[in-house]
Amino acid sequence: MNPDVNDFRKWTVAWAAVSLVISLVNSGCSARRESESGPGDEARGQPVSVQLNWYPEVEHGGAYHALVDGLYDDQDLAVEIKPGSRETPVAPELLLGRSQFAITNADDVVLFRAQGADIVAVLAAVQNNPRCLLVRADSGVEGFDDLSGMTLQCQPGRTFLPFLRERGFLNGVREVPYFNSIAGMMDDPQMAVQAYAVAEPLLARQQGLQVRTLMVSDLGWNPYSSVLVTTGTLIRQSPELVRKFVAATQAGWTEYLEAPAQANTAILKANTHGMTEEVLQFGAEQMRPLAFPTDTTQLGEMSLARWQQLVAQMKELDVIAPDSVQAEECFTDQFLP
Question: Where is the signal peptide (predicted)?
């Protein structure tokens, strides 16, 4: 099947579900928290949950460090981290109040807002996106211009794909589903895999493969990553809660990137999908220059110019409708120091 048609159908179904949630919320429908409160819960602090957009990995390291090192406790918050998966419904979880915060990517924030979901970024831990394509060193592929004739395992609906297609880099490339594994590369030098530069390159080398990473950010597609988001409603109604959660998460990221071992132990326990201690350590090391690309970068910072560029790119790619998203509404830096 044509990958563009396949992507469209998958995202039509997904966004129909999101739109239904939005209509329910706007109609006054509410959902109760799934967890039950006990008599001593007040002593533990205010219950808060954060929904991950993927299986627990280094891109969630700051939240895990804040949890295990007591930084959330210091803010009088009793925090639950909810692991994600391939199809995590981040926007519905927030809109229905099952989670107050989530970690996702900047391009997803734009997609959520294009569908009418009032999702707002409050901290961007990673400035340079770790998205890459992973190819074998013996594939003959030196750069994106050499991909023709390859097979690419990728997740339909990810917005870096139309970016690559529009620029012609996927011409002659066969796209097949991605199953959160590099196994397809083991016996096929003509197989490429979507990846994060903070994990899969080492996983491949641990299995005896010499690989090359093609960074999508080098082409100009560079949404913020590991973005902490919440709802506009929570910002308006509970700004102090947002302030405390952002402060603890920001501190968690700062400390995690300096000393990740404690949080990595918690991540490894929560992740049952082939992660290893060595890969998590490697990932934290690779994450540092992505989070601090310059000497003056402040952890979590965001700029209107970066959001404007992203929104303009997504309009150009016809991923969102014209005038459906205003860049200045995608984020707020009011909770950052």
Answer: none
